[in-house]
Specification:
The structure is a single chain. The strands form five sheets. Strands 10, 11, 14, 15, 16, 17, 18, 21 and 22 form a nine-stranded antiparallel beta sheet that branches. Strands 3-2-1-4-5 form a five-stranded parallel beta sheet, sandwiched between helices. It has a four-stranded antiparallel beta sheet with strand order 6-9-7-8, sandwiched between helices. The chain has four domains: 2-91, Rossmann fold (3-Layer(aba) Sandwich); 125-180, Dna Ligase, domain 1 (2-Layer Sandwich); 191-318, ATP-grasp fold, B domain (D-amino Acid Aminotransferase, Chain A, domain 1); 327-411, Glycinamide Ribonucleotide Synthetase, Chain A, domain 4. It is an alpha+beta fold. It has helices at residues 10-20, 51-60, 72-75, 78-84, 98-101, 103-113, 126-136, 159-171, 239-259, 292-297, 304-312, 351-355, 391-404; strands at residues 2-7, 27-32, 42-43, 65-68, 88-89, 120-123, 140-144, 153-156, 182-186, 191-200, 203-212, 215-217, 221-224, 229-232, 265-275, 278-285, 327-335, 360-364, 367-370, 373-376, 380-388, 410-411. The N and C termini lie far apart (41 Å). Strand 7 and strand 8 form a beta hairpin. Helices cover 30% and strands 29% of the residues.
Amino acid sequence: MRVLLVGSGGREHALAACLSRSPELEVLFIAPGNPGMVPLGTLVPIAADDVEALVAFAKEQKIDLVVPGPEAPLVAGLSDLCVSEGIACAGPSQAASALEGSKSFTKDVADAAGIPTARWERFEEAEPALAFVRRRGAPIVIKADGLAAGKGVIVAQTLEEAEAAIIDILTDRSFGEAGASIVIEECLVGQEVSLFAFCSDGEAVLIGAARDHKRIGEGDTGPNTGGMGAISPPPHFGRDAQEQALDIMVRPMLAEMVRRGTPFRGIIFAGLMLTKSGPKLIEYNVRFGDPEAQALLIRLESDLLPTLKALAEGQLAKASICFTDEASVSVVLAAKGYPGTPVKGGAIRGIARAEAVPGVSVFQAGTALQNNSLVASGGRVLTVCAKAATPAEARARAYEGVAAIEWADGIFRRDIGL
């Protein structure tokens, strides 16, 4: 198969590593990719959200399957344009991608499908939103309605924090058009987990689960990020519990999407809170998570490529997926200043030493080549992943890999997996 993988982050590096191993792969193009992916495929200088250029390239190269990594090209209609040109795409339509593109849309779908989720309200103006939180009190959750790169969620512990978040998003427009409206919802309490499944119209096949560490600081302190590390599988959320959650959280959503005339075909990532009264939906994402994908995919034993092709063609019954029983831990190395303005340009060395540790893989994200040297060029820069027989051993290997990397501007959490 001739494959075009879209994206440039650690998630896409992990996907490229899996796809490159497939005996069914003829050629792998990656747009735009990053320096770590050079040994795995041919990098193409097309932005991940330039859907017209991506599809034109796919036509020119007679691509058999487009594999979208991030959410932005899906929300921009990449899958629809591929289908119109007769190209298979392992991602949902623009209409179905609203499950991630609009938090209020997700809430409407969840309510219609009877999926347990936090009580919520949507607002477009600051004054009614401020009045609402003053009535409800804190803790309370404020969310930008649109795409905000994983940073548009504020868990306000005080009324003052909630008011500041509302002004910041709705009045100061800190997230641009993504914050033209907000969702305010009750604060759920429990353990957060990420559930993943392949979906095709009304069918769902379980991939697995992971637990992300969102906050920048140890002990889950500080602002939210795109993710500072992940473990897979999460403790106390085994295969049986994952299958039960699929029945409660995913399959009713798929049926509701079919009823609305916008069937979902792609990878669903359901963010769940395991509360005392049972699991509740936090959000849907329409792709693999990052860094959850890295933690999941280093445990993958089966061939990912034919599964993605079957999904894209609506033949999910033919899909098969198998993971090792090993545990995995992924630690993100970010640049100083992240999730604000990251320090760029610092030299990075030691990736080969890190990957010499048994079970360790290093996936690149915000990296670039400068005078033939690897340098940091973004916020989240590397993900050091390790797998082992036990979570403790996987964690020890991951941090041994982190210690092997030389990068003066790198920051990371030391409590991933604890």
